[in-house]
Design a protein that fits this description.
The complex is a heterodimer of chains A (414) and B (86). Chain A is of the alpha/beta class and 414 residues long. Chain A has twelve helices and 14 strands. Chain A folds into two domains: 244 residues, Peroxisomal Thiolase, Chain A, domain 1, CATH 3.40.47; 152 residues, Thiolase/Chalcone synthase (Peroxisomal Thiolase, Chain A, domain 1), CATH 3.40.47. Chain B has four helices and no strands. The chains are: A alpha/beta (414), B mainly alpha (86). The interface between A and B is medium-sized, with 13 and 14 residues. Chain B: InterPro entries: ACP-like_sf, PP-bd_ACP.
Chain lengths: 414, 86
């Protein structure tokens, strides 16, 4: 029998909270984390609205000299990992063999710091380039610095599947734990996209929500008037653990990760396949991996970013799996914005809270559902329905689809 | 000139978040003294090159860990004024 994989720690850096419960409360209450950029912020005047996470002093997570040229994505990754370990009551070396804990923490890397270094290079030539730039920006450095800081000596990696990367990191962690290659995995993602070049790329691609006088109204997944996504920054790290290992140390279990799936649309670098077949097959694979039938799913946390094409394609995919009768569906990005790869991690934490509380969160700003997104959409208020298992979707540029299935902690055999 | 170089080095180290408060000419840059790591030494070398218009070879930069503050000051000064001994 394959090992049960369970979540024993959650660490989040997000516009709406630092714990699973805080984020879940904000989502349930429709308390938006989206605001106008503050005066002086690099994206002030660049984007209308964004999801800003609380500032973190780099010196609070890195030794002095290391903290000067380090991207915010790495700083947030370190804070999320620290919180996940503390939440799980884990000290590496005391609660787990350093070679039996892995790290898979992903993201696009420290592009903001790269932007500023490129500008310095243009201004001052080679003297403007810091030798610290690469350890401060490479996409593997979140995972690597977590390993260095906490003494993790097992498998360490990062995954580059854009907005599917956080969910895929969780999936790969499941694979490693099932294979018996580790007892614990710190898995997740960190993204710091709120700087001019990156924001302009999304803006010029006409992907960003625009024209909303109220910033909290800008992110409106599945709504007829939606006109794009709202960029957000943050980090999310889960501590996944073999359930038997968790039980042996008396750890609390949030939820089990029952299964996952991954496919590619093989269609276009940024546009989802309109017939939804890639995402539909991804969900089917995740269900099969979990040993569940589609009807066993009581709630779907959609990718639902608020773009015209993306939301419609996801709805088509869900109808492909479920026909006209889908499980209750919502997107929590109405309050969080789109944290890119981090979304899948934050939403997995939300799913764990759904299982615990039996409350299904609504989609904020879903005032007038788009007929192209016809499904059992949860609007306005949370729905109280105890569920057995939940499904969470994440889709990324490149046509990457990842679905996770979470369920209540299962009793251990014997 | 040595004073100016020393002042520059201490200011650079402080800006780089090293604790240079108790350092003097006899303090080494490596683990026995300021404990500046390899990237820190590389950055310090680039800053000195930028400020004083001198150049370090790659292997010289690696040797900085064994040097004292005073030795580096004299080495930089010698590069600035190679003919001053005559």
């Amino acid at each position: 029998m394959r090992p049960i994989v369970t979540v024993t720690g959650v660490g989040l850096v997000s516009p709406v909270g630092a714990t699973a419960a805080e984020v879940f409360t904000a989502v349930g209450e429709g308390r938006s984390g989206l605001t106008r950029p503050p005066e002086g912020h690099p994206v002030h005047g660049v984007v209308d609205v964004a999801g800003f996470s609380p500032p973190i002093d780099p010196a609070s997570v890195l030794p002095g000299p290391e903290s000067r040229v380090v991207d915010r994505s790495i700083v947030m990754a370190l804070r999320a990992a620290e919180d996940a370990l503390a939440d799980a009551g884990v000290q590496v070396g005391r609660d787990v063999d350093p070679y039996r804990i892995a790290v898979i923490v992903s993201g696009v890397g420290g592009l903001s710091t790269l932007e500023s270094q490129v500008l310095e290079r243009a201004r001052r030539g080679r003297f403007g380039v810091s030798p610290y730039m690469l350890p401060g920006t490479l996409p593997n450095m979140g995972a690597a610095r977590i390993a260095i800081r906490f003494g993790v000596r097992g498998y360490t990696s990062s995954i580059g599947t854009a907005c599917a990367a956080g969910a895929q990191s969780i999936g790969e962690a499941v694979r490693i734990l099932r294979a018996g290659e580790a007892d614990m995995v710190l898995c997740g993602c960190s993204e710091a996209p709120l700087f001019p070049t990156f924001a302009d790329a999304f803006g010029n691609a006409r992907a960003l929500a625009r024209g909303w006088s109220d910033p909290t109204a800008a992110s409106r997944p599945f709504d007829r008037r939606r006109n794009g996504l709202v960029l957000g920054e943050g980090a999310g790290v889960l501590l996944l653990e073999r359930a038997a290992h968790a039980a042996a140390r008396g750890a609390r279990r949030y939820a089990d990760v029952l299964g996952w799936g991954a496919t590619n649309d093989a269609h276009h670098p940024t546009t989802p396949r309109p017939d939804g077949t890639g995402a539909a097959q991804c969900m089917r694979i995740a269900l099969r991996d979990a040993g569940l039938r589609p009807d066993d799913i009581g709630y779907v946390n959609a990718h639902g970013t608020g773009t015209r094409a993306g939301d419609a394609a996801e709805a088509t995919a869900l109808r492909e799996v479920y026909g006209s009768s889908t499980p209750p569906v919502s997107s929590t990005k109405g309050v969080t914005g789109h944290l890119l790869g981090v979304s899948g991690v934050v939403e997995a934490a939300v799913c764990a809270e759904v299982l615990r509380t039996g409350l299904l969160p609504p989609t904020h700003n879903l005032d007038d559902p788009d007929p192209a997104c016809e499904m059992d959409l949860i609007r306005k208020e949370p729905r109280a329905v105890p569920v057995r298992a939940v499904l969470s979707n994440s889709f990324g540029f490149g046509g990457h689809n990842v679905s996770l299935v979470l369920g209540h902690p299962e009793p251990l055999p014997g | 000139m040595t004073d100016e170089i020393r002042t520059f080095l201490f200011a650079a180290l402080t800006e780089m978040k090293y604790d240079a408060e108790d350092a003097d000419d006899d303090t080494v840059f490596g683990p026995a003294g300021l404990d500046v790591d390899s990237l820190g030494l590389a950055e310090l070398a680039v800053r000195v090159e930028d400020r004083f218009g001198v150049a370090f070879d790659d292997d010289e930069a690696e040797d900085l860990a064994m040097m004292t503050v005073g030795e580096l000051c004299r080495s930089v000064q010698a590069r600035i004024q190679p003919a001053s001994a005559h």
